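Q: How would the structure tokens look for this protein?
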Amino acid sequence: MALSVRDDGMGIREEELDKIFDRFYRADASRSTKGNGLGLSMVKKIAELHDAELSVESTEGVGSTFTVVFSKVVAL
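A: Here is the predicted structure in token form.
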């Protein structure tokens, strides 16, 4: 099972993709958006706790797609 979230925002530069899941990392510190750089690191940790894989595809100026692939599905 997979879950994908896509946006049509600014995108992420290729050289920053390996850093965006680090705690407190902000791709562009000059942005006027609020935040402290914890969101994506929390998503990564939650995915790991569920034995899921998290990936991102992004093109600067076009947008990003974040995908979480769950290795096992538990029925409720």
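The chain has one domain: 2-70.

The mean pLDDT is 87.

Upvote if useful.
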